[in-house]
Amino acid sequence: MTRPRAGGMVRRMSLLRHVERCTRADLREFLPFRLEGQTVGWLRPAVVERLSGIEHVRRAADGVTVDPDLSGPAELDPVLDQIVARLDGLTERKPTGERIPVLARWGEAPLATMERAGAVPLGITACGVHVNGYVRRGAETLLWVGHRAADREVAPGKLDHLIAGGLPAGLSLRENLRKEAAEEAGLDAATADRAVPVGAVQYRFAKAGGLRSDLLFVYDLELPDGVSPENRDGEVDRFELWPLDRVLATVRDTDEFKFNVALVVTGFLLRHGAIDPDSEPDYAALVAGLSGVRPG
Amino acid sequence: MTRPRAGGMVRRMSLLRHVERCTRADLREFLPFRLEGQTVGWLRPAVVERLSGIEHVRRAADGVTVDPDLSGPAELDPVLDQIVARLDGLTERKPTGERIPVLARWGEAPLATMERAGAVPLGITACGVHVNGYVRRGAETLLWVGHRAADREVAPGKLDHLIAGGLPAGLSLRENLRKEAAEEAGLDAATADRAVPVGAVQYRFAKAGGLRSDLLFVYDLELPDGVSPENRDGEVDRFELWPLDRVLATVRDTDEFKFNVALVVTGFLLRHGAIDPDSEPDYAALVAGLSGVRPG
What we know:
Two copies of one chain form a homodimer. Chain A is of the alpha+beta class. The first copy, chain A, has nine helices and 13 strands. Chain A has helices spanning 16-21, 45-50, 72-85, 119-122, 173-185, 189-192, 244-253, 259-271, 283-290, and strands at 31-35, 38-43, 57-60, 63-66, 99-102, 112-115, 126-137, 140-148, 159-160, 163-166, 196-207, 210-222, 236-243. In chain A, the strands form three sheets. In chain A, strands 7, 8, 9, 10, 11, 12 and 13 form a seven-stranded mixed β-sheet that branches. In chain A, strand 1 (31-35) and strand 2 form a beta hairpin. In chain A, helix 7 packs across helix 8. Chain A is globular. The two termini of chain A are 19 Å apart. The interface between A and B is large, with 41 and 41 residues.
């Protein structure tokens, strides 16, 4: 698919399609879900029906509210546990046994915590840490690309970057980064601490099972040439060091990267000069789209 | 002003206020302005009134349209010239003699060109190039900060970065960058060409005179330690090399930086790890806000 643009710009398979896929959410299909009077999630009507009769959960004209007299994890977590127990068959993930923070906004104390598998059916934003591992070889930059194991529940066989992990309740981003660096790439804490925070990627899209809403904190980690990451938790079969033109072509022309890794990698390519605004007609839309702005 | 946050986070004078200032636009106060049937600008009712009687300019119920039979700069530029001639007293800038491209979207061929001073009254997006000049000294990163001359029409005495310039019609971003690098920093084309595209900053805010809408393409340029930029066009009195903690404190706690330079510099700080998401409660809002997302 090519289409002539200004000044010889040509649209190939587009980087922007990854962003477009991740910004499809019509919130009119959802009702807000509130804790302490603040919207923390979005519910499909089918989910709202399932919640009737749970103590402290009230259906209002404009959404579902947990009794605003309840506040903080000690009082709200038991209510969320009852809510999540009603979601049987709606969650596409099995219960993970891991609790995530429920936030009205990044930087505020969590209002509550809940089982991770409830995030999509309840439209609750899940935070994560994504780390691009890269090597400088002269003027060239190379990116570590992981091949996800074929037996994974999530995105089997897809391409990944160095380290990624959802943020569990009770850990800082840096603590989580250290934990995942050890499990996913066999890197020690001192190496993990050299990862530099470089931004965030946000997206939200409607699914049959609910609303996927993610806030990914992105880090770049320069590794010495010759040091290879080693996966320890079975998530990744092998890592390869790719030149950026191969990364760019693969993100642009294929769906081999896990969907959200494609976004984080696009951000890496933008930040490291691998995409030129003079020749990429979608440049401004890509930058905005990675922050959750719907292109168009 | 301090306010306790989660995990010891404290809100000082906020980086986010610069973003908040630049995202105040209620488009309901404006009517769309169309060329070739595409919205390229936004007009206050007072501007709409001034345009009555211009040939090929039609007031429709939902905006102002230039006759859609007219297309391309050859046919549209004379109409825009007549429109701009009606803006006397509304433009806060004197006519610059420089024409800018009128775009429906970055990456498309310009629909027309027009005198730069008409951009705000017509709510047309102006593109620009902003370059952060920096130096690496061991593990430390330092940023070149310019002191704008006191006799400037725009932002006299404010702090600036290394190079910035609006994009005139007919130049690529890279060509404009080379031109501005020579004029504003005394850098040759080979040095300018080492500037790396790293993203874009977008904002839009309502003013008495219209709508300011900018799309700034951002480049980072590493300079050798010991090489000092030299301003040639009188825009900057002197350049100083600042450690990032001084840059951060100055952006956060003062309005000394030119308003849009504060945004570009915030992007630099975010990209270079000078802002930690674990301790900055506005982190996600800052990242999104630099792409034009209204914080909320």
